[in-house]
Amino acid sequence: MANIIDGKALSKETRQHVKEEVSRLEKEHGKTPHLVVVLVGEDPASQSYVRGKERACKRAGIRSTKIEKDASISEEALLNLVNELNSDPEVHGILVQLPLPAHIDSNRVIETIAQKKDVDGFHPLNIAALQIGTKGVLPATPKGIMTMLNSIDIDLQGKKALVIGRSNIVGKPIAHLLLKNHATVTMAHSRTNDLAWEAKQADVIIAAAGKAKMVTGDMIKEGAVVIDVGVNRVDDKLIGDVDFDSAEKKASYITPVPGGVGPMTITSLLQNTVECFKHIENI
Ligand code: GUN
User: Fold this and answer.
1) Domains in the chain, ordered, with CATH?
2) What whole-number distance in Å separates Cα of residue 236 and Cα of residue 182?
């Protein structure tokens, strides 16, 4: 039976550290980190994510402002808003909730956010920093995964890691972070010939393909560490990319869904907001 990496508990502990740091920064510098979240349109999932982010900020003592815009907002108007936030010294972090309406070029919006205020770590310069190995803001989900791996004291050096899924938000950045930690990284995706074989070689599996229960116990090497990034809604339930019941019989450590990577993502966002604050305020 695998040990569970409890994302909820780890988040609680990490968020407490963030809260203490915010409080210390306020005392020592008289300023509070401020995150602005821009929500365009009325997508219920996005509204719910943004509510979660605001709640987490509030609990950690981070100031947050939500700016809601109608789905009909023009790209130019949204870019103008981002530019205003870029030059506002009272704003330390900017997050434009994705997806954006089809008439808006998301890449243009992301590129317009000042690199030092890009709490999502989606700006091309932050992505480049991750690839080169220089300092930048890490995307929240991969950062949360690394916090989880660090929590079990795994030495990644020389380990075989399989990343399933090649998204810009999770697959590609987590592959770079694993590489940076000296793992031997393989990337699998929808066109991979023999996923079961690839998985069987892996000491660490990061399942981030967005396909419910695609990784099953029979694909997993005995003692592997399995991180499930999947959040698939099936019959109104949240189901991971890993078939938990069969996988936990083989894995040494496994993350549940829900209560695994999900809470860590918002926790990383809080950490990123504090990091951006310190960078901007020269602390
Ligand atoms: N939509 C779903 N997840 C995210 C995220 O992490 N950041 C942003 N900006 N939009 C999202």
Assistant:
1) 30-114 (3.40.50.10860), 140-261 (3.40.50.720)
2) 39
What are the structure tokens assigned to 55, written together? 């709640």
Please give the full DSSP string across 72-113, using - where no structure is assigned. Answer: T--HHHHHHHHHHHHH-TT--EEEE-SPPPTTS-HHHHHHHS
- Residue pair 64/53 in contact by the 8 Å Cβ criterion: yes
Token representation of residue 199 = 């998985």
Choose one of 37, 38, 97, 269 to mutate for the ligand 1 pocket test, by most ligand atoms within 8 angstroms of C-beta: 97
Is the distance from CB of 264 to CB of 149 less than 8 angstroms? no
pLDDT digits (tens, 9 = 90+) for 192-248: 999 999 999 999 999 999 999 999 999 999 999 999 999 999 999 999 999 999 999
Token digits of residue 180: 């940076």
pTM (two decimals): 0.96
Centroid of ligand 1 to alpha carbon of 12 (angstroms): 21
DSSP character string of 174-232: HHHHHHHTT-EEEEE-TT-S-HHHHHHH-SEEEE-S--TT-B-GGGSPTT-EEEE---E
**Cα–Cα dist 220/248, whole Å:** 10
Describe the crossing of helices 140-151 and 7-29 by its angle, rounded to 10 degrees. 110
Q: Mean pLDDT throughout 157-185?
A: 97
Q: Which atom of ligand 1 is nearest to the CA of 141?
A: 6
What are the catalytic residues?
53, 97, 120
| CA torsion through residues 257, 8, 171, 169, sign | positive
Q: How far apart are CA 99 and CA 2, in angstroms?
A: 35
Task: List C-alpha distances in Å: 242 to 49, 182, 185, 224, 248.
Answer: 22, 25, 19, 13, 10
